[in-house]
Amino acid sequence: MDRSSLLSSLSSLSSSTSHTNFKPQFNLSSQPLSFNYSSSSAFIPQFLYKSNNSLPKNSTATVSPRPSLRSSAFALEEALVKTNDSSSKIYAREMLPKIDKSGRFCSPRAARELALSMIYAACLEGSDPVRLLEKRMNARRELGYDFDKEKLLEYNHMSFGGPPVTVESIEEANELMQKNEMESAIEAEVLAAPLKLVYSKLILRFARKLLVAVMDKWDSHVLAINKVIPENWKNEPSGRILELSILHLAISEIAVLGTRHQIVINEAVDLAKRFCDGAAPRIINGCLRTFVKDLEQTRLAETSHIRNDSFF
């Protein structure tokens, strides 16, 4: 299934969502985006996963042991940027707690992934991502609904796509397909579940904080994004909604929330590896580094200007 087929398969949030004046415009010269998608009660990002037209990616859903809860996931995330050794970074990332004592996601990655899904769905609908999140949080459970929390341990936030896989036999191809389908089924069940069953209160608050930051600076960040993205992305904004949503999320976290840019860039690149195609991770990495460089130069110039005014 190619990228356009994956995107066209996406089910948006309920059409009863109240719309606001939020008009996602990624290109200054473009019209507000308008899409016609079927409606359902939940946004299922697994339809966005990277794929190819031949065989499925060679990855499996792994069952992780219950992590230690003694350390804060946010504190461990901060520690990642202080490590120069790449193998130590990988080890430290694997040690990030995945669920808390209540059996819910507690990692910052989960919050960013949730926020991204809300931004993406809001762009498709022309609605407000903050209200979209609140609607999902307050949605009533269907009578008799039962969610298996063991699925949270099997869910893999670090499942990335890869190059086409070559196999020796049809049996091997079928095995890979079955593993991929199993992972997709787990992701679908987790991401369609009521948010309060899946995410801790801390993560839901963080996701909402991210979305508020995105909304507050949307217009100004459209200008910033248009300065750093390649021309072909500007010419096809409707085909790059996901990539541009990642940029909005990352830029808002850096500029508004003040999260260290090393952390945000790493997370944005991982989200791009997980949900986007082709060179998107590399391009997003370059765009964000250019944005950070420009931001630092602007802040330095403002500081210098203030000092000069104070001197005189």
Automatic annotation (TrEMBL):
<protein>
    <recommendedName>
        <fullName>NusB/RsmB/TIM44 domain-containing protein</fullName>
    </recommendedName>
</protein>
<dbReference type="InterPro" id="IPR006027">
    <property type="entry name" value="NusB_RsmB_TIM44"/>
</dbReference>
<dbReference type="Pfam" id="PF01029">
    <property type="entry name" value="NusB"/>
</dbReference>
<dbReference type="GO" id="GO:0003723">
    <property type="term" value="F:RNA binding"/>
</dbReference>
<dbReference type="InterPro" id="IPR011605">
    <property type="entry name" value="NusB_fam"/>
</dbReference>
<keyword id="KW-0804">Transcription</keyword>
<feature type="domain" description="NusB/RsmB/TIM44">
    <location>
        <begin position="193"/>
        <end position="293"/>
    </location>
</feature>
<feature type="compositionally biased region" description="Low complexity">
    <location>
        <begin position="1"/>
        <end position="18"/>
    </location>
</feature>
<dbReference type="GO" id="GO:0009507">
    <property type="term" value="C:chloroplast"/>
</dbReference>
<keyword id="KW-0694">RNA-binding</keyword>
<dbReference type="GO" id="GO:0031564">
    <property type="term" value="P:transcription antitermination"/>
</dbReference>
<keyword id="KW-0805">Transcription regulation</keyword>
<dbReference type="InterPro" id="IPR035926">
    <property type="entry name" value="NusB-like_sf"/>
</dbReference>
<keyword id="KW-0889">Transcription antitermination</keyword>
<feature type="region of interest" description="Disordered">
    <location>
        <begin position="1"/>
        <end position="20"/>
    </location>
</feature>
<dbReference type="GO" id="GO:0006353">
    <property type="term" value="P:DNA-templated transcription termination"/>
</dbReference>
<comment type="similarity">
    <text>Belongs to the NusB family.</text>
</comment>
